[in-house]
Design a protein that fits this description.
Chain A: It is a multi-pass membrane protein. Chain A: One of its GO terms (molecular function) is metal ion binding. The complex is a heterodimer of chains A (848) and B (119). Chain A contains 24 helices and six strands. Chain A has 848 residues and is mainly α. Chain A folds into two domains: 468 residues, Cytochrome C Oxidase, Chain A; 162 residues, Up-down Bundle (Four Helix Bundle (Hemerythrin (Met), subunit A)). The relative contact order of chain A is 0.10. Chain B has 119 residues and is an all-alpha fold. Chain B has one domain. In chain B, helix 2 runs parallel beside helix 5. The N and C termini of chain B lie far apart (61 Å). Classes of the chains: A mainly alpha (848), B mainly alpha (119). At the A-B interface, helix 8 and helix 9 of A face helix 1, helix 2 and helix 5 of B. The structure holds protoporphyrin IX containing FE. Protoporphyrin IX containing FE binds next to helix 2, helix 3, helix 13 and helix 15 of chain A.
Chain lengths: 848, 119
Amino acid sequence: MNRAGPDDLPNALPRPPGEEEKLKRVWATPRGWRILSAVNNTVVGVAYLGFAFLFFLLAGVVALVMRTQLAVPGNDVVGQDLYNQLFTMHGTTMMFLFAVPAMEALGVLLLPQMLAARDLPFPRLSAFAIWAYVIGGLVFFSTIFYGLAPKGGWFMYPPLTLTEYSPGDNADFWLLGIGFIEISAIAGAIEIVVGTLRTRPPGMSLTKMPIFAWAMLIFAAMIMFAFPAVILATMLLEIERAFGWPFFSAEKGGDPLLWQHLFWFFGHPEVYIIFLPAAGLVSMIVPAMARRPLIGYRLIVVALIGTGFFSFGLWVHHMFATGLPALSLAFFSAVSMAVAIPSGIQVFSWIATIAASEGRFRITTPSLFVLGFLAIFTLGGLTGVMVALVPVDLQVHDTYFVVAHFHYVLIGGMVFPLFATFYYWAPMVSRRRLSETLGRITFWLMFIGFNVAFLPMHLTGLRGMPRRVWTYPGDVGWDMLNMISTVGAFILAAGVLVFIVDLLRNFRPTAGGGGAGDPWGAGTLEWLPGDVYAARSIPLVRSREPLWDQPNLAREVEEGRHFLPNAPTGGRETLVCSPVEAKPEYVLQMPGPGWSHVLAAIFMAGFFLLLTVKLVVPAVLSGIACIIACIWWGWSLDPGPVKGDVPIGAGIVLPTYVSGPRSHAWWAMIVLVFVATSLYIAYVFSYLYLWVVSPDAWSPHGAPALPPATWPLASGALVAAGAAAMLLAGRRLPAPGRPSATAPLLLAFAALAMTGAVVLEVLGHWYSGLRPGQNAYAAATYMASVLNVQVGIAVVLLAGYAIARSLVGCLDAVRRVNFDNCAILYPYGAVQILLSLLLVHGFPRMAG
Amino acid sequence: MRSEPTASFWGTLLYILAGPLLWAVQFTLIYAGHTAACLPAVPETLAVPLVAVPTVAAALAAVAFILRQEAFARALGAPEPPRAAALHAIARIAVLLALVAVIWSGFALALVDSCLAGR
Ligand code: HEM
C-alpha cells in the first residue's frame, strides 16, 4: 500500500464535477410509501428504535395497570388470570421486544456511522430482521386484547406451561413471539459481527475501535452463543406441547429443570446482552462530556470481554433454590461475585474520566442520565452481589426484593443509558436537537419516580411479599410500601410522557440525510458531516478520537479527500478492510432498496402465525412463498467480478468482487456455523442431562434395543460420500464462460446423500419400534434427527440454489460465492450428523 | 500505514481471549466433573481431583501465559510487540482477570462439601 502521510491525503482536490451528486443519487432514500423498501441504516435504524420504544411504552402501560392493581390490598381492578397475563406480557415484551431490539437498533443506527462505513454489510438482512420483529412483536402483543396472552411468566417454566396445565394457544403465542425475536436477533448479530470486523475505516485497528463497537461485537458474539440455548428450549417445549415428546414430563423420564438450565443459559447472558451495549454507549458519552479521552480504554475492553464470558457461568444462580449439590452452587456463586469485578472496572473508569476532566465535565441531559445510571446501576449491582450469596438468595428468592434488584439493573443499566443516548445522538439523525429543558424535567421525574417506585420494593420483599401475586391481604405491613411504589411508577411514567412531548415537538428525522450537526464537540466519527451516503469519503484513521486528534479531518472528509469519495461501480458500495489492522481489502457492492426482504419477512410471519393457530396448509403455502421471496432476494446479491478493480485513493486499487475467506459472505456463513454449533452443543447437553436424571429410560432397559449397527454405518457412509462429492465439486467448478455439468451433478449428489443419511437414521429407529412420545430417551433420540433435518434442509436449499445459479451461467470458479456458502455449511452438517450417530448409537451401548 | 505482515485474525482472537477461554474450559470441566462425581454410582471422593486438577492446570497455564506472552503472540500470529501495545495489554489483563475467577471458583472446593444437597 502506498504511504499516505498527514499532508498527503488519499485523494487530491479538485474532485471531479458531479461526484457528490452521483453519491446522492445512488444512496437516495425512497420517498412516500416506498420508504418501506428502504435499507439505509439511518432510516431503518430509526424505525427499529422507534418500534422498540413503542414496545417500551406498551409494556410500561401494562406495568402501570399492574401497579394500580397492587396499590391497595384486596384490589380488583384486574383479576388473577389477567394479572398473570399482564406480568408475563410485561416481562416478555420488555426483555424480548424492547431491550434487545433497542440495542440491536442502536447497532444498526450508530455502528456504521462510528466506523464511517456507508452502511452495514448486509443492508437487506437488517431490514428483514426489523420487519420480522415488527410483525411478530405486534401480533404477539395484541394477544393481550383477546385473552390469548401467555401467563407462565417471562421464563415460562414447565410443567406449568405444558398442555396439561396451560391448555389453549396462549403459551404457543409466547413461543411464536420468541421465535421471531430469535430469528431477528441472530440476523442482527451476523450483521454486527461482520460489520464491526470488516467495515471499519482504514487504519482503525481493533484497539482503535470506539468502545461502543467493542461492546456491540461482544453483544453479537454473546447472541451467537446464548440464543441457541433458548432456541432449542423453545423447540423442545413446542414439540412437547404439539406432539407429546416428553422432554419435561417427569413421569416419562423428562425433567422440568432441563428447561431452567437451557432458559437461564440464555437468560442470564441476556441480561448482559442488554447491559453491555448500554455500557458501551456510556463509554462514548462520558468522554464527550468530560472533553477528554476515556481513562482505562484497555481495562474497559477487558471488562467487556470478561463480562461476556463470565455471564455464561452464572445461569445456575437463578436455580439456587432447586436443590443442586452444594459445590455446584458454590461455583456459580463465585462467578456471580467475580462478574462484579469487570462491572466495577467500568464504573471506576467512568468516574475517573469525569474526575480527571477537572471541572470541565458538562452537566447536560445526557450527562444527567449517565450520572443517574451510575447511581442506580451501582445499587442494583450491590443487591446483585447480595443475591449471589446462596443463603441470602434462599431468603429472598421469588420475593419483591428480586423484583427491585432486577429493575435497578435493567432500568438503571439500560433505560437510563438509552435516554442518555436519545438526547446525545438525536442531533445525528434529526434536523433539531431535543430540548434541554424538557430533557432535564424528564430526567428528574424518571430518577425520582424510579427510586420512589423500586426502593421500597426491597423492603416489601424482605417483609415476605412474593412476586407474581395479583393481590395481598391488608394486615401484613405491605400496603403502605405498595402504595408508595405505585405513586413512584406514575411519577416515572410522567417523565416518559414529557419525553414524548419533547419528541413530538423537536424530533425531525432526516430520513438518512445529515442531522443537526455535532453539538458536543465529540471525537468519534459518527459526528463527521454527512448525507444519505454517510461520510463523503472514508477517513484514514490514526487514533481513537480522530476528530480531536486530526482537527482538519471533518473538512478533508467532506471535500472528498479521503478514501472512496465516489461510487466507482455506479452502485452502493463500502470499503472492506482486514479484521485486525484494518488494511483495505476490497470494495463491497451492496444492494439498495427492495421488496424481496419485506415479502420474505411477511410470509415468514404468516408461516409461524398460521402454524400457531393450527392452519397447516396455509402455513405451508406461506412458508413456500417465504422461500421464493428469499431466492428472489438472494439472486441479485452476487454481482460477480464484472466491475473489475477500482481505485479508492492513495494509489490503491481494489477488487470489487472476492470470494473465500476474504469475502463478507464467508464471514456471515462462519457466524451461522457458530450459531448452529452452539445449538447442537445445547442439544448434546440436554441429551446427557436427561440421561443423568433418568438413566432407566435409556435403551436397552427402558426402550427397545437400538437398531443394528448397519443403519448408522450406512448413514455415516452416505454423509461422508456427500462431503467428498462436495469437496470435488469445489475443484470442478468451471472456468468463467465454460459451462459444465460436473459440479452441479456433484452438488446434487451431495445434497441427496445428506438427505438419505438423515432419512436412514430416522427409519432405523422407527423400525426398531422406538416412538418419540414413549419416554424422554426416545424424544431425545429423535430430537437429534430433528436438528439434522434442519441442517439438511438448509443444505438442500443452498445446493439447489447453487445448481440453479450454475445452470444460468452465474456460478463458476471465480464467481463462486453461492457455491462457497453451501460448501461451508455442508462439512458442518456432515460433522453434526456423524456426531449424532456416535451419541445416539454409541452412548447407550456404552452406558447401558 | 506500514506494510508489516497481516496479522492472523483467528490467532489474534485466540490471543486476546486466551484468559477467558482458559476460565471457560476450567469452569466447564469442574462443573461437569463434579456433577459426574456426584452421580450415585461414582465415589464422591473423586470430586476433589476432578475439581483440583483443572483448577491448578488452568492457573499454571495463566501464569505461563503472563511469563511468556511474546512467545504466545508469535505462535498465534497476533501482531508482535512492540506493535499493537494495547492488544498485548488487553490480553495480559484478561488473563489476570481469568486467573482470579479460576482461583475463586476452584477455591470453593476447600470450603464446601462436594455432594451435599444445596438446600
Ligand atoms: C417502566 C417502569 C416499570 C415498572 C413500573 C415495572 C413494574 C413491574 C411490575 C409491577 C412487575 C410485576 C411484579 C410481579 O407481579 O411479580 C414487573 C415485572 C417485571 N419487569 Fe418491570 N417494570 C418497569 C420496567 C421494566 C423494564 C424496563 C424491564 C426490562 C428491561 C422490566 C422487566 C421486568 C421483568 C423481566 C419482570 C418479571 C416478569 C415476570 O415475573 O415474569 N420492567 N415489573
